[in-house]
Amino acid sequence: MRADIALTESLHASAEGALLRGSPRHGGADLGTDLALGYRLNRGLWSFDAGAVARLFIGAAGKLDYGEAYIGTSYALGPALVGLSASYAPKQSAIGGDNLYFRAHAAMGIPGTPITMRGHIGRSSGTIDDVVKAARLRPGGRFIDWSLGADLARGPLTLGLSYSGTDMSRAIATGPFADPRHSGSALGGRIGYSF
Questions:
Q1: In 3D, which of 58, 136, 49, 57 has the Cα closest to residue 98?
Q2: From CA 66, how far away is CA 54, in angstroms rounded?
Q3: In the chain, what are the domains?
Q4: Residue 172 pLDDT exceeds 90
């Protein structure tokens, strides 16, 4: 579930939570929460974003919370939006090093409907100081992920469904923080509410 709050015309905050069902990837945490503060600048058909995110894991065994910063840009092409972004988590013991994630994404509203189709492809890499904890974000050192999905918007409420996958092999998803359930393909749902 996600909630967004516009603090000013350009400054916004958001909170997003996901049930983790005791995933070993995050130390047995039951709930993952992202708290974000971001700034958006719109210039014609272009928009530019920057911000920071605190990733918190409720009920985790140990200190596994970490933070990262992000920047991005997107361009509107009629009912479609295309963009590029990058996020960087500096070296932290909770992730066994640092992490750099590049992402290309696109979204397109279907004319005459409240449905938006979405997709992305991304690549994660970084340095490793602790092989065991680095497996939380990057089993095997680096990976590519992708998704394709749809959102249905009704007023401030958004319902979404997406199919995602990675090139991560289950064979490398080993260790106390590596969860084989996060490799391969998955179908997921989400709920969002904007204030």
A1: 136
A2: 6
A3: 2-194 (2.40.160.40)
A4: no
Separation between Cα atoms, residue 50 and residue 11, nearest integer Å: 10
Q: Report the candidate in 78, 99, 74 with the shortest Cα–Cα distance to residue 89.
A: 99
User: Please, which residues have CB within 8 angstroms of residue 44's CB and are 6 or more apart in sequence?
Assistant: none
pLDDT surpasses 70 at 173: no
DSSP 145-170: EEEEEEEEEETTEEEEEEEEEES--T
Structure tokens at 42: 């719109």
Separation of first and last alpha carbons in the chain: 13
pLDDT tens-digit series, residues 40-74: 999 999 999 999 999 999 989 889 999 999 999 99
Half-sphere exposure of 91 (CA within 13 A, CB side): 5
- Over residues 115-136, the pLDDT tens digits come to 999 999 999 999 999 988 888 8
DSSP class of 175: S
